[in-house]
Specification:
It is a single chain. This protein is α+β, with helices and mostly antiparallel strands. The chain has one domain: 2,3-Dihydroxybiphenyl 1,2-Dioxygenase, domain 1. The protein has 3 helices and 9 strands; from the N terminus they run αβαββββαββββ. Strand 2 (60-64) and strand 3 (68-73) form a beta hairpin. The termini are far apart.
Length: 149
Amino acid sequence: MRAGSDPASPHTRAQAQHIAEVLLGHDREMQMAHGVATVWVPVTDMKRAVAFYRDTLGLDVKSESDDWSELDAGGLMIGLNGREDASVSSSGGAVITFQPDGTIEDELAEIASRGADIQGEISDHEWGRIVPFKDSEGNDLQFYTPPQG
């Protein structure tokens, strides 16, 4: 039975459409998240982690302390969260994916020369190209480029 066709139904067609829009994210007035403010990354050695993101990836340091540092990745703030135990789970976790300024090959060679822990080869997919690497604390990172053409 269609919503709104039964007089006992609490939903009119307009109410059903509104519910569908909210559930599908089409109702922007009801949207709760309006973007990503900061991505938190757990680290055990703040100085080493800041040096990696600054010197290896070239990010701008916006603030730095022993327990919290922020870096700007082209408008996305990355917060390094100092913890005594920031061990990375063997079952995976979040991955920060960066778009390189140049070609993926050139940027990969550059970060490798700066000591980044490259985790594999560049892989080609219909949705783009990726190459995984780790930060100084063992967190998973990637370079990604969209498909050409």
